[in-house]
Each structure stands twice: as structure tokens, then as C-alpha cells.
Write a structure and sequence with these properties.
This protein is of the alpha/beta class. Helix content is 57%, strand content 12%.
């Protein structure tokens, strides 16, 4: 299956600015989609593809900074590049602290925006890859029995088979069997790899 072409969403209530940015993005072969408001963006269907959002700071009804926070709360993982004609240092610091990739003040050079877009798309590509790996890991973990999960929790804390057996009130042989099943189901080739998987699962909770 061919990889989806990256998409750049542009939200700006200034139609001429929005269309100029879309034309620039389309000129380098990216799929550019424009919206006059955050609401329009939220109501539109979005392809399952690497993407970023070029967002004007000042929007009717709500600021781009507020919308950035709304997206985060809604679990929409998409890198944001702010553009503004009224930027100031506190505003840019707030945006970057909240996770924005870039904060560009108009007028900016075309290449500045294109560089920021390319960096944001690569960042999103990595985010999507990490999410896919984590989703696969969670599926494997879900296949473990409750007892296997108990054993795994103790094993990745560095407990020996005998210590695990004592803690759970089972024989060492039973622990060894469970460990074998855990390694197979989690597709872990070594104990260090299993420990890393456990860390990744814990971090996402």
C-alpha cells in the first residue's frame, strides 16, 4: 500500500493569505487544505496521513493559542506552526511551551514556512510511527493472562524466578513456564527488551 501524501492544513480567516499559503504549499507537491475557522477544520474529514497545521494566532471567536489547547485536550496529535502579524515574545513563548513547532511573524520568507512545514511533517511521521509501535505493544500485552501480567511485572523489576515464585505462591517451574509464554506473546528476544517494553507500556498509562 502506497504511503499517504502528507497534508498541510491552513486555518486563517484572511482568505487571500490562506490561499497564498495554500498555493505555496501545493507548489512543493504537498496536499494543502484551507479553512476559514477552527470549526471548519474540526468538521472536515482528515485522511490518515502525516500532517501539520499552519494556524493564524488571531482568529474570529477564539485565538489560535486556545485552539491549540483544545486540540491537545481532544487528543488530536498534529504539529502546529503559528503565523501572525501581531506576534510578541510572551505569545510565542506560550505557543512553543504548549508544543508548537514554530512561530512565524508576517511577513515571513516562503522558505522559512516551507522549512518549518517539512520539520513538522517529519515530526508527525515519527509520532505516528511511535503510536503504531505502541499500539502493537498494547495488543500483545492484552493477550497476556492476568497471572502472566503479574509475573511480567515482577520479572521486569529484576526479581529472580525463585523470588517471583515465593511472592506469587507458585513453583519455580510454573514461573519458568509463564516467563516462556510472556516472552513468546510479547515477542521479546531478551530480558532487556522485555524491560524496555514494560517501560514503554508504563509511560503511556
Amino acid at each position: 500500500m502506497a504511503a499517504q501524501r502528507p497534508v498541510v492544513y491552513v486555518i486563517d480567516d484572511d482568505r487571500s493569505m490562506r490561499e497564498a499559503v495554500q498555493d505555496l504549499i501545493a507548489s512543493v507537491g504537498l496536499d494543502a487544505r484551507g479553512f476559514a475557522s477552527p470549526q471548519e477544520f474540526l468538521e472536515a474529514s482528515r485522511p490518515d496521513a502525516p500532517a501539520c497545521l499552519v494556524l493564524d494566532v488571531r482568529l474570529p471567536g477564539s485565538s489560535g493559542l486556545n485552539f491549540q489547547q483544545e486540540l491537545a485536550r481532544a487528543g488530536v496529535v498534529i504539529p502546529v506552526i503559528f503565523i501572525t502579524g501581531h506576534g510578541d515574545i510572551p505569545m510565542s513563548v506560550r505557543a512553543i511551551k504548549a508544543g508548537a513547532m514554530e512561530f512565524l511573524t508576517k511577513p515571513f520568507r516562503d522558505q522559512e514556512l516551507l522549512d518549518a512545514i517539512n520539520a513538522a511533517i517529519e515530526h508527525n511521521r515519527a509520532q505516528r510511527s511511535d503510536a503504531a509501535v505502541l499500539g502493537d505493544l498494547q495488543q500483545r500485552y492484552a493477550a497476556l493472562t492476568p497471572r502472566e501480567r503479574e509475573v511480567m511485572a515482577l520479572v521486569i523489576r529484576g526479581k529472580l524466578n525463585k523470588q517471583v515464585a515465593d511472592e506469587l505462591g507458585v513453583s519455580e517451574v510454573t514461573v519458568k513456564v509463564h516467563r516462556g509464554q510472556i516472552m513468546r506473546k510479547m515477542q521479546a528476544k531478551s530480558l532487556p527488551e522485555l524491560v524496555r517494553m514494560g517501560d514503554a507500556l508504563r509511560d503511556c498509562r
